[in-house]
Amino acid sequence: MKVLQITTSSKGGAGIAALRLHNALRAYGVASAYLSKDLTIDFHGNHIADEFFAYQKPSIFQKVFRKIEHKFFPSAEQKVQKQLQKLKEDLTYEMLSTPYSSYPLEKHPLVQEATIVNLHMVSGILAYKRFFSIVQKPMVWTLHDMNPFSGLFHYQGDTDQNSNVFSEIEHQIRAYKKQCIQKSSLKAVVGPSQWMTDLAIQSNVFKSETTFKTIANSIDKESIDVSGLHKLKTNLGIADDRLVLLFIAHDVNSPRKGMDVLVDALHRIDALPITLLVVGKGSVVVPKENIKTVSLGVIYDPHKMQELYTLADAFLLPSREDNLPNVMLESFMVGTPVLSFKIGGMATHIQEGITGMLAPDITAERFANTIEDFAKQHSQYDSEVIKAYAKTHFSPKLQAEGYTELYKTILV
Questions:
Q1: Model confidence at 145: pLDDT above 90
Q2: Can you tell me the distance from the alpha carbon of 339 to that of 374, in angstroms, rounded to the nearest whole number?
Q3: Overall pTM > 0.90
Q4: How far, in Å, CA of 338 to CA of 352, rounded?
Q5: Within this chain, do residues 275 and 233 fall inside the same structural domain, yes or no?
Q6: Distance CA 161, CA 173 (A)
Q7: Which of 46, 14, 11, 16 is nearest to 31 (CA)?
Q8: Predicted pLDDT of residue 358
Q9: Looking at residue 213, what is its pLDDT?
Q10: Is the pLDDT of residue 24 over 50?
Q11: 70, 187, 241, 374: least CB-packed within 10 angstroms?
């Protein structure tokens, strides 16, 4: 059995989660390979120089032919792209992608060598119609967001927000995806959270005989040297009497990640001295005497991130929509509780008084109350208990066992 993990990029939440699955399977004895635009690992575990996704300059003939084709015989993709160009200025979204691609992914040597293809987030590299009609090997799709069973957007919030402008083309693309998937050899769909699995089932995009399964992402249990934390705390200007809260997002101002809710919540907290550490693109300021905000920018060093998770009294995850974010698992791994809303994978894994606290409603008032309640009892949280929870529920071995069992089932 040779399983190929395919994702657009090795960076970002989906790429990191897919790479962790790849490593978990290899450690478990399964031949797994990994394919993305920026990282390729073969079935022997070798990192290879892969020119497959490299840009190839078209010849003059190709340029002329494409111009003629685009003007007089536009493809379905070109028609959609033309519509998008007209509408994009009126759209607000976190991410948008089409089910088209110029990459002949079905011809990649690793795709041809694989016994099973495990798709992840494949926007921009997989042409639905061509790939699903040509590749007839058993497939599994791990859902990192809603895009595979939606139209152009990746979360329902963006779909709803743009419905007035975009509903017709959104329905058109969703129908096109469904048609392609129905004709594919896709055998199973995996949701890292039960929330995502349920949404996939309810979507009615996948074939009736599709196997749906919930298997959590994994996180390696790593040790951290805490001897430098006092120095880090001093460097960041954090006084000992302040509650330290951490927020992380690729784009801190993404509406889905809820920074606006968090800022509003902090405005409602008067007496509690708080230091808010913010990691990601963009900066945040909360103009209140009792709130100190430290914007740290984008950090790629995993050791530095571990230090910040460990330094924080709590990790804040005020997302409006989220699946099973890596940041929650990373926080649990070092024993830091998480404060969030009762949605997605957070509703399953954040347990009151054990691994964190959940606000019952997605409002600034409720989140402010949750932060204040946590401040009164945060000393009662046991980091070793949280680490044990992470080890039990998100171990690479547990994930590898779940996927291996599924792979064997679809090969029958």
A1: yes
A2: 8
A3: yes
A4: 10
A5: yes
A6: 17
A7: 46
A8: 98
A9: 98
A10: yes
A11: 241
How much is the average pLDDT of 23-44?
98
Residue 61 has a pLDDT of: 52
Report the sign of the C-alpha dihedral through residues 297, 294, 307, 262, in that order: negative
CA torsion angle 185 7 342 264 (round to 10): -140
CATH code at 96? 3.40.50
pLDDT in tens, 109-134: 999 999 999 999 999 999 999 999 99
- 203 and 238 share one domain: no
The rounded mean pLDDT for the chain is 92
Q: Annotate 44-95 with three-state secondary structure.
A: CCCECCCCCCCCCCCCHHHHHHHHHHHHHCCCHHHHHHHHHHHHHHHCCCCC
Query: pLDDT digits over 38-67, tens only?
Result: 999 999 999 999 999 986 555 565 444 455
Q: What is the mean pLDDT of residues 56-79?
A: 57
In contact, 118 and 30? CB cutoff 8 Å = no
d(CA 320, CA 343): 8
Backbone Cα Rg of the chain: 23
Nearest CA to 16 among 278, 330, 362, 267?
330
Under 8 Å between Cβ of 381 and 332: no
CB 148 within 8 A of CB 127: no
Name residue, tokens 């070092």. 334
Q: Note whether 332 and 349 are same-domain residues.
A: yes
Do 44 and 170 share a structural domain? yes
Contact 92, 11 (CB under 8 A): no
Could you tell me where the beta strands, DSSP code E, fall in 160-285?
186-191, 211-214, 243-251, 274-281
Domain count for the chain:
2
